[in-house]
Amino acid sequence: MTPTHSRRLLIVDDNQAIHDVMRRILQGRPGSTLADAHAALFGGPAAEQRPRFRMDSALQGEDALARAQAALAEQDPYQLAFVDMRMPPGWDGLETTARLMAADPAIYIVICTAYSDASLEEISQKLGPTDRVLILKKPFDPVEVVQLSNALTERWVGQRAASQRALELETIVRDRTAEIQRASMHDKLTGLPNRALFSHRLDAAIARHRADPTRRFAVAFLDLDRFKHINDTFGHACGDQLLVDVAARLKGALRSSDHFTSEPSTSARLGGDEFLVLLTDLRSEHDVALVANRLLATLGRPYNIAGQRLRVSASIGVATSDTPYAAAADLVRDADAAMYRAKAEGRGRFVLFGHDMKTEAMERVAFEADVRQAVDDGLFDLHYQPIVRLADNEIVGFEALLRWRDGKWAGRSASTLVAAAEDAGVAHALNLWALERAARDFRTWSNTGCDVRLNLSGKQLLEPDLLVRVAEVIEDLGGARNLVVEVTEATFVREPTEARSALERLAALGVRTYLDDFGTGHSSLSCLADLPLHGVKLDRAFIGDLSGDPRHARIVGSVIALATACGLDVVAEGVENAADLARLRDLGCHHAQGYWLGREGDNAHVLALLGGTESGND
Ligand code: C2E
Ligand code: CA
Ligand code: CA
User: pTM for the complete prediction?
Assistant: First the structure.
């Protein structure tokens, strides 16, 4: 650690007389420092607390380098070196400077040179672009020497403190994010993986199956029979205990079934009395039946809970990788449908998802087709939700959210629409429509200073001609400052290089970009620091429990502090009550969004919110 009040300088000059002069200026004689000059002119105490600088001398560059290395090793580095340009017979000033900087990238260097010495061009040619090297012309003025010494060491100390703080915060955030992610991937009660982790593993199984169709898998959806009755009769504590026991039996049964499979099976709790099991690398349907029957037998053995002997059966529905729609959510839904059939057929059994259960699957196909048609027919709408600046409660912009205008799919969520559009291969068209629609709506409130914010899915972001259209729309919008693009964190996990270059191109156009749903993915804040992002949107998973769970408040505080230190704007999503809003304000959050601050609505709603702004050209 470097004591702040004692800064360390290195004077490198082949002329001993210069060392004496520098010492006089910086350490000693009255009348030689700025403070003294100030005192002499305006009265007051002469420079106090001297010597302020600890100074070492080197007569040659080689010696200077050795000293700088030793100082680093002692963890008491030089903040600043004055380096003479000409020091025969050894290295010259430039060589010395280059070596000092290579040894200690944080050091500041003042090169002392006469007019006839190397030009500025030569210096920057040799050293490359740097803001750590300054030039002082000889003969130098003592005031200049003092000013440079004060200013540069001051800057060094400031930078050191800032980078240490950032490092500390980074560690805190990394640890806490990991902690929360661990917690957010497992069910609290049973310790089993939750839906998120299960989906993750299921996605992996789907990918393996796509690469090699012989690697079959099955999803079993398991629901306890009459669990509600047990809960109501024996109380919730007993119900919870039963769930814990069921989880333990599931794990045990799968472990002993693993000889059917080459990857370990995963069991997960969805919530309530619903469990999921992923069976990987199955040889045949016969294996599925074996495992399912084994699970039924294991779970059907009596339980001993609070002195009671209880018997509980389970119903299991199974969907396999042989069904044509191999998206994780689809398979779970098929398994769920099969489970309902198992219940209907008398409980305590397992049913394999079959063709007669295809209604839902058919509906999905119809939905996809309709989405494709709706893109052509313009059956979508954009709704806008305000983003509020916490400093003055002003609305600064609106996030555009996709809606199906009306008809049988009107209630579907935006993410379902986007996912279906992606599956149907029309996501890009949808996206272009949204860009243009947002631009048209924006023109009706462009005079309010609010911007418009669009979501782009990972796939959309990577469309090659997206940038061209964005550039066109920017012109329509009256400038890039009016457009913000939100991209989800998952994009950067899946296609880091491509996503980064798309972001860079957006930034080059002047479009601000935000990382959406921050905290749900796996990117660390340090990797954000070098993405050309304008800000992050903290996922509502963190905000939801802000006033309840102190861990969430701590992590949100750390994320805000670090993002701020990295120069990023922070928008908190999903603010649903005054307590969370107040908490965010205390934690220094810049912007917020959520039902508490304003729901989304159509463009008329925006105009009403903005206080009756007149319609533009629409
Ligand atoms: P998102 O970007 O995180 O958008 C915010 C979502 O949170 C919206 O859901 C919004 O209605 C909801 N929300 C806002 N405030 C609150 C709150 O206080 N509490 C709760 N619980 N929810 C709140 P929505 O409209 O269903 O959108 C879901 C996701 O679909 C969006 O998440 C976004 O990722 C995506 N999306 C929406 N519109 C588009 C679009 O035009 N293009 C693309 N690519 N994606 C879109
Ligand atoms: Ca968003
Ligand atoms: Ca979000």
Answer: 0.54
